[in-house]
Hints:
This protein is α+β, with helices and mostly antiparallel strands and about 80 residues long. The chain has 2 helices and 4 strands.
Amino acid sequence: MxxxxxxxxxxxxxxxxxxxxxxxxxxxxxxxxxxxxxxLNKPLEATFVVIQEVETENWGWGGLPTDVYRKQRGLKT
Length: 77
């Protein structure tokens, strides 16, 4: 029984969104489950997917908090 944990930062992927949408989460669950079926022959009903959203202040990148790293690199915050 596979258990897959997906961690993402809590921020929207579209204007006005502040987190991953329910539809995006459903797509992740479906895609990961299908991948395990295709590659490892694990049945869909035996696969568990957990999505964890983490505040950007609790996510580090390159030795810095994510927002600071992105600002230094000129990336979207």
